[in-house]
Amino acid sequence: MDQPEEPPPPTDPERPQASRRTTVLLTVSLVLVVMTAGVLGTVAVLMTRSPDAPFIGAKPPQRLSVPVHFAAVRETKAAPCPGEEAALDQRQTTCYLLEDGVTVNAVQKIEAVREKDGTYSVRVAVAPAYKQKLVDLMDELVPDRRQIAVVLVPRTVVAAPIVTQSLDGDSLSIVGFSKQEAEALAAQLLGGTPGP
If DSSP codes are grouped into helix, strand and coil, which group holds residue 26? Predict the structure, then answer.
């Protein structure tokens, strides 16, 4: 004989059920999280492949037509300096005997900047590949307030400021110029041509 149909089990009134709207919202959120993770993963891979590459959207470093060498000054002498391997200043009146240094082939920017006291400086923002080497060099020179020669390769010293502070930002500044002098030095460093 046929058994009577059993009624469906009663639903648990304390167990909430998700509405259709909540389900759609959770699904869309999950898709967004997965897409964001994919984009961040791609950026991480690109940065790992080329750690010196600029951030996405950032201006790439500018290659210099003539490299700029930064080196500690061991000693200065009046020119000529026969028998000495020295770099000369632009007027060829002073010989700079230099220690090992850092040669920079690319920069983010070189520009003349007006300081608060009305003088001008030349701001040099080196490419990321050279920054740590330059930071290390400057840190060695700060305690003794030593000079650093800014040399257009192969051997023309265009500036030799005294290092008074560590390189803690993205750039270094060579201070104490008039507007015309700062603009001329910035142009020299970018163009690689010694001035007068």
Answer: helix
Cβ atoms of 174 and 189 closer than 8 Å:
no
Helical (H) or strand (E) element with 73: strand 62-78
What is the C-alpha to C-alpha distance for residues 71 and 141, in angstroms, rounded to an integer?
10
Q: What is the DSSP string of 120-157?
A: EEEEEEE-HHHHHHHHHHHHHHTTTT-BEEEEETTTEE
pLDDT category at 3 given cuts 50, 70, 90 is low
62-191 is a CATH 3.30.1360.200 domain: yes
Query: What is the residue extent of each domain of the chain?
Result: 16-49, 62-191
Q: What integer pLDDT is reported at residue 134 of this predicted model?
A: 92
pLDDT at 37: 73
Pairwise CA distance, residues 6 & 97, whole Å: 103
